[in-house]
Amino acid sequence: MIRMKFTRSFMFLICPIMVLIFLYYSSGRLHLRTSVQKSQVRLDSLHSVGRVVASGMTTWMGKQGFPSFIAHQSFLPEYDKQGFLTKFDRKLPLELQYKYGNLSKGECKPGFTEAKMTLIYPKFSKPAPMFLDPNFKRLSKISSYPPPFGVKTQEKIIDHILLATKSYSLGSKLDSLSCKKCIIIGNGGILYNKSLGSRIDQYDVVVRLNEAPVAGFEKDVGSKTTMRITYPEGAIQKPERYEKSSLFVVSAFKPMDFKWLRHMVFKDKLRSMEGFWKSVARFVPRDPEDMRILNPYFIQEAAFRFIGLPHNKGLMGRGNIPTLGTVAITMALHNCDEVAVAGFGYDMNSPHAPLHYYEKLKMSAIKESWTHNISKEKEFLRKLVMGGVIKDLTNGI
Ligand SMILES: *[C@@H]1O[C@H](CO)[C@@H](O)[C@H](O)[C@H]1NC(C)=O
Ligand SMILES: *[C@@H]1O[C@H](CO)[C@@H](O)[C@H](O)[C@H]1NC(C)=O
Ligand SMILES: *[C@@H]1O[C@H](CO)[C@@H](O)[C@H](O)[C@H]1NC(C)=O
Description:
- This protein is α/β, with parallel strands linked by helices.
- It is built from 14 helices and seven strands.
- It has helices spanning 2-43, 48-64, 69-72, 94-100, 112-120, 140-143, 155-165, 172-175, 197-201, 218-221, 255-265, 297-307, 324-335, 374-386, and strands at 181-185, 205-209, 227-230, 247-250, 291-293, 338-342, 390-392.
- The chain has a seven-stranded parallel β-sheet, with helices on both faces.
- Helix 9 (197-201) links the parallel strand 1 (181-185) and strand 2.
- The protein binds 2-acetamido-2-deoxy-beta-D-glucopyranose (3 copies).
- One 2-acetamido-2-deoxy-beta-D-glucopyranose is lined by residues 318-319, 373, 376.
């Protein structure tokens, strides 16, 4: 009896306390939401007129004791299907202005790309290693997809390759930099005769794609090559055409590509070309220690999250493979403090412009692609350029 009474009075006491705690926390959350919304509204420069009205309303309502978040509700930032902000403000938010304010012009800004990407795409999560290392099976995002979006079914051959390459990073010199500027060189004719070579060579990491030549084109494309990302059909076929040193990075799009890489790593001449859509290199003049496997997460993320290509149950299908250039940019978003590109973008309006900077093939030779969706991909790259996440030296995007 006494015990029950005690329990009852205890309950009487505890109930109001719980209510108070609940009220305290929920009001705290409201405040939190208000300030988040305020800072997001600040981003939205195109709504500046609305903003003035809104902040006027806030003050007025604040005086009347209304919760100020109501005034902001119709000015919430809008996101597209992919999760990108639909309107960008090129101006740096105050906290970044402060962070980078003391750096001299052109100095590398630590964390800049990640900060800008997060502003236009709040879902961005930076950690994603550039290359596969022997712990790759722990990367949950790639273990559930077969190539090109993951490593499923290829674990054994990858283990075998990585045991021989022994190296899984950019190398000690670049690894030790506290801030890295990277540039991805596309192969577009738009690079031709722009004399960007010396500017390109100033980047810490210069990424080239497939068979893009350097020798003879230094004035326009620079002479430094940190890495060359390729798939078998795109790799340079003549050993003498490789630059003296660079990392040979394979972006595997199909199971056969891992088999090919194993041949290249073990200097095992490839006999059959079966399974490739055009002839491939039979020998790559690189030591195993200079070979890498690009993390396939970048293909997956570019396709399904950034561009919004059809998922097709996680298998390669019509129009759901990003181009190598976009895969390389995606890699750089995760691994570089600043990212620039050059040689990207086709000008469909000038069919007589050269398609590549190194050959006479004309724009008009480009065929409707089965695997890629160039126009959707360009929409994504434009968001990166418009949002100031990447810098486009040739203004083709
Ligand atoms: C920038 O420099 C000023 C003056 O030297 C200093 O007071 C301030 O803390 C610096 N800001 C940052 C972010 O380093
Ligand atoms: C290359 O650019 C220079 C000036 O920048 C110009 O004089 C020259 O005609 C251009 N060459 C070609 C082939 O377009
Ligand atoms: C590219 O995407 C657009 C829009 O989703 C679609 O209409 C078009 O058919 C796609 N092209 C290819 C080649 O898949």
